[in-house]
Amino acid sequence: MKNLAVIGSTGSIGTQTLDIVRRHPDRFRAVALTAGHNADRLVEQALEFRPEVVVIADETRREYVKTALSHTPTKVLSGNDALCEAATWDGIDTVVTALVGFAGLPSTIAAIEAGRTIALANKETLVVAGSLIMPLAKQYGVDILPIDSEHSAIFQCLQGEEPATIEKILLTASGGPFRRYSREDLAHVSAAEALRHPNWTMGEKITIDSATMMNKGFEMIEACHLFGVRPEQVEVVVHPESVVHSAVQFVDGSVKAQLAVPDMRLPIQHALCYPERLTLEAGRIDLFTLRALHFERPDTERFPCLAYAYTAAATGGTMPCVMNAANEVANLAFRDGVISYTQLCDTILHCMEYIPSNPSPTLKDCFDTDHEARSKAIAYINKQQ
Questions:
Q1: In what order do the strands lie in the sheet with 94-97?
Q2: Of 73, 113, 289, 306, whose CB has the highest number of CB atoms within 10 Å?
Q3: Residue 276 DSSP SS3
Q4: Rounded distance, CA 229 to CA 210, Å?
């Protein structure tokens, strides 16, 4: 039996993690569940899985959750600080970090310092502070197991291989809903169109990031930290079928790839079970009907956010933190209909051009940079109105 804390249990990754717990009650127990604002779903999850503790970050919903669970032994906490308490709860073996954005950083750090295995879905943790997180994990002897389908694929391809033999990582991208759109078309797309991903069902923020290809830029930076490679060793490959989830090319020219139908439960379950594999009732690839797989180079003129990520990675220091903060602000503004797709990209570039990078940041520097970049992004967006 493995005891889990699911930080962000009401989101896409969180609910799919709990589906795995539901299917394997003899293997997993949800001990701690947390949500931001979705009190109703958190209560539903708590009534089904009977965790020892739940956290509702929105303190105005604490009494609602507490009353709904008053007939159960589940402890109810509230506030952002309580997320760290849930991540370090007694008896937890693995912490699934499923929060979206910079907000996931503190609880991930707390879990590492408590010696918990990290099942990482919050890619922003490594984007903004990978140079600090990876040494911290090594210091505490903590494994970081990737949940992203791409990084899980790379992780699986590297089993039994020496890191020094990696020539490059082939990081696949679906291309999102706008793969065939011209630059002129992109200037007029709506958030509703961007949220219609052709292959994956994800949360709104990551779906928009996929449409802009910023998500792939984040994944490139994450891959650098997880697998000890340089940005120029990560090649993004647009693969619209989303069957090849990523591949690794080695120094002898051979390539290993991981293939599966698009189902996030597979990489989640792999991280939770590693080094075992459990049966997963999901679709299977039929090579006889697959017919063809397509691969294209990404167009960074139409999707400049990917180029921004490579620039941020090459610059290093706090520049990825600047990029992430600006993107979080711009992504939300685009979803709210405040700015256009083009202005989303421009906001990120503006912040990267006007906020200098600190080459050797501390954790405090990352938090300060995040605050500065958000303020700069908000001011820039306001000027566009």
A1: 75-78, 53-56, 28-35, 2-7, 94-97, 117-120, 144-146
A2: 306
A3: coil
A4: 23
Enter the tokens of residue 28: 């997993």
- Please give the Cα distance from 158 to 174 (Å, whole number): 22
CA angle in degrees (0–180, nearest 5) for 308-313-317: 115
Q: Mapping DSSP to helix (H, G, I), strand (E, B) and coil, where does residue 30 land?
A: strand
Q: Tell me the pLDDT tens digit for each residue of 38-53.
A: 999 999 999 999 999 9
Cβ atoms of residues 19 and 268 within 8 Å = no
Q: What are the φ and ψ backbone dihedral angles of 94, each rounded to 5 degrees?
A: -130, 135
Instruction: Kindly compute the dihedral angle of the four CA atoms of residues 15, 19, 20, 26, in this order, to the nearest 10 degrees.
Output: 130
From CA 100, how far away is CA 306, in angstroms rounded? Answer: 19
- Contact at 8 Å (CB) between 104 and 8? yes
Task: Provide DSSP, 43-55.
Answer: HHHHHHH--SEEE
pTM: 0.94
Cα end-to-end distance, the chain, whole Å: 54
191 and 335 Cβ atoms separated by less than 8 Å: yes
Residues 6+ apart with CB under 8 A from 42: 9, 10, 33, 34, 35, 54, 56, 65
Distance CA 82, CA 278 (A): 32
Q: Tokens 């001011």 map to which residue?
A: 379
DSSP state of 355: S
Q: How many angstroms from the chain centroid is the CA of residue 137?
A: 18
**Within a 13 Å sphere around the CA of 46, how many CA atoms are in the beta-carbon half?**
28
306-340 pLDDT per residue, tens: 999 999 999 999 999 999 999 999 999 999 999 99
Q: Is 105 helix (H, G, I), strand (E, B) or coil?
A: helix
Residue 349 backbone phi and psi in degrees, to 5:
-60, -40
